[in-house]
């Protein structure tokens, strides 16, 4: 998946989140003012988390390599102080998963995202975003494995080709030797006897 597709997926996730929050707000309309107000605040705060994450991902993707390293170090520092900070765990996983990241480590990102998903503490919007990142890392890992297998197959074919080329050269050399022997024999037979 290239950067353009990834950005399109993230934008569609934002659009989906915006559409789903409207439905949730409309569903709470009959439950009273207090419930509507509380659910609206909860939805907004959960959406802000996803929007903040998407904005972070977009900003981080466009940073220079040195700035990416600095941001990564700062995020790791925050997590060292508080390992349960969900927002920074997702940010760290994003930094490890993004194709434009200089700190890319797909295996670590996949493990981090899997742990976050298994904790079952995410809002639906955050869950969608983390699931998308996890699916991306899984697909990337599968594609990388397939590429490695393809490279091995190509190497095997290359070795077989080189072996057959050597065999062909040896056979060609033997054929030339036989032709020379035949030529020599024909020359002896055609020479007049004295």
Question: What features would you describe in this structure?
Answer:
The protein is mostly helical. The protein has one domain. It has six helices and no strands. Helix 3 runs antiparallel to helix 4. The longest helix has 67 residues. It is rod-shaped, with a radius of gyration of 32 Å. About 14% of the residues have low confidence.
What descriptors fit this protein?
194 residues, mainly alpha
Percentage beta strand = under 5%
Low-pLDDT ranges? 21-47
Oligomer: single chain
Overall domain count: 1
Q: Which outline best applies?
A: rod-shaped
Q: What is Rg?
A: 32 Å
Q: Mean pLDDT across all residues, rounded?
A: 81
Helix content: over 70%
Spatial separation of the terminal alpha carbons:
85 Å
The tally of strands reads 0
What is the tally of helical segments? 6
Secondary-structure element series: HHHHHH
The secondary structure category is mainly alpha
Instruction: Report on the biggest sheet.
Output: none
List the helices and strands and how they pair.
Blueprint: H1 3-27, H2 33-61, H3 65-81, H4 86-97, H5 106-119, H6 124-190
């Amino acid at each position: 998946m290239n950067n353009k597709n990834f950005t399109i997926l993230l934008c569609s996730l934002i659009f989906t989140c915006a559409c789903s929050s409207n439905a949730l707000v409309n569903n709470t309309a009959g439950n009273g003012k207090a419930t509507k107000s509380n659910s609206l605040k909860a939805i907004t705060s959960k959406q802000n988390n996803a929007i903040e994450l998407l904005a972070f991902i977009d900003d981080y993707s466009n940073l220079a390599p040195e700035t990416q390293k600095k941001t990564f170090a700062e995020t790791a520092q925050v997590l060292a102080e508080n390992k349960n900070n969900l927002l920074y765990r997702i940010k760290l996983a994003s930094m490890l998963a993004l194709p434009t990241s200089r700190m890319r480590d797909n295996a670590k990102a996949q493990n981090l995202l899997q742990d976050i998903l298994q904790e079952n503490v995410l809002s639906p919007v955050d869950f969608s975003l983390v699931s998308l990142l996890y699916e991306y890392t899984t697909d990337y890992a599968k594609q990388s494995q397939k590429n490695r297998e393809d490279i091995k197959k190509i190497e095997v074919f290359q070795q077989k080709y080189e072996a057959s080329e050597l065999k062909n050269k040896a056979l060609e050399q033997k054929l030339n030797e036989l032709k020379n022997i035949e030529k020599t024999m024909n020359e002896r037979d055609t020479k007049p006897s004295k």
